[in-house]
Write a structure and sequence with these properties.
The structure is a single chain. The protein is elongated. The protein has helices at residues 13-25, 39-45, 61-66, 85-90, 103-118, 142-153, 167-172, 181-187, 207-210, 230-239, 254-261, 277-297, and strands spanning 2-7, 29-34, 51-54, 72-75, 94-97, 134-138, 157-161, 176-177, 190-193, 218-221, 244-247, 265-267. The chain has twelve helices and twelve strands. The chain has 306 residues and is an alpha/beta fold. It folds into two domains: 2-101 and 275-297, Rossmann fold; 103-267, 3-Layer(aba) Sandwich (Rossmann fold).
Length: 306
């Protein structure tokens, strides 16, 4: 089988080497397409691929339709909004992600971002400590649980909410369950967002919920920019001059927010959550193993389009 590694933002050399070793040891061929200039290059390269590994690359309907031999595509990472699941399903292509492989990297970043804002972006101004504060975690999956453990180790009280977990499961994960999203936001000094971008969550975090946060609170977003109602956020920050927002997915209105609110708003230059050498390697190797397992045994453990 031909496995295409299509990465406009390439994996680390160690990850590519490991992926190649795993794929070839299973008797398959690996071809790479790195730093490609146009989406058309990806479409052309996919034409004879049996499997595709991507990072943030867009597996569109055009890609799927062009790849006549395609049987499986794996997104090396947890988020999968770059995969057209409907197109994959329509063409009998199994779509997977690699949950958990980037989790620690994202969790460490979320904690670092809280401290960065608590210390007024490391300017000479007097900051605050996060010890003794309460963190609310919106979505208590792999990343959320790790954020909670790290926050607790730093002396924070941890609350969480997740529509797919029972209160008992949240407690078992080390957090106090919030009765509602409104309670989570209104009772926490920091709220860390870890929800995916879905039709139900897109623009779900806006003025009404943000203004429920207590005085001096900070909203931390290492999820997706689409979950934020940017106009609503701007309105909330304008009315509540004590609130802060930090994200590693820059909003479209970032320049406006920074001009109006200065040190109360920060966005990293690019999405940084999985940008560690460890996460880079872990996600790539997991994607290769999942493809090889699929071809060998039909395993679809992490299939998204069921």
């Amino acid at each position: 089988m031909k496995v295409l590694l299509a990465t406009q933002k390439p994996f680390a050399a160690a990850a590519v080497k490991g992926i190649k070793e795993i794929v070839e040891a299973a008797g398959h061929e690996l071809v790479t397409l790195e730093k490609y200039a146009e989406q058309a290059d990806f479409v052309a390269a996919a034409a004879d691929a049996d499997a595709i590994i991507v990072r943030s690359d867009k597996v569109t309907a055009e890609v799927v339709e062009a790849a006549k031999n395609l049987k499986i595509v794996v997104r090396a990472g947890a988020g999968f909004d770059n995969l057209d699941l409907a197109a994959c399903t329509a063409h009998n292509v199994v779509a997977m992600n690699t949950p958990g492989q980037n989790s620690n990297a994202v969790a460490e970043l979320a904690i670092a971002m809280m401290i960065f804002m608590a210390r007024t972006q490391f300017t000479p101004a007097t900051g605050t400590e996060i010890q003794g504060k309460t963190i609310g975690i919106q979505a208590f999956g792999n990343v959320g649980r790790l954020v909670g453990k790290k926050a607790e180790a730093l002396g924070m009280k941890v609350k969480a909410i997740d529509p797919f977990l029972t209160a008992e499961q949240i407690i078992a994960g080390g957090a106090e369950p919030a009765a509602s999203l409104e309670e989570l936001y209104s009772s926490c000094d920091y709220v860390s967002i870890h929800i995916p971008a879905t039709p139900q969550t897109i623009k779900s975090i806006g003025y009404d919920i943000v203004t429920k946060m207590p005085k001096g609170a900070t909203l931390v977003n290492t999820a997706r920019k689409e979950v934020i109602d940017e106009e609503g956020l701007a309105k909330a920050l304008e009315e509540r001059t004590d609130l802060k927002y930090i994200t590693d997915v820059a909003p479209d209105n970032l320049a406006e927010l920074q001009e109006k609110f200065g040190l109360r708003v920060f966005a990293t230059p690019k999405k940084m959550g999985a940008q560690t050498s460890e996460a880079n390697v872990n996600a790539g190797l997991a994607a290769a193993r999942q493809i090889c397992d699929f071809f060998a045994t039909g395993c679809t453990k992490f299939q998204l389009n069921k």
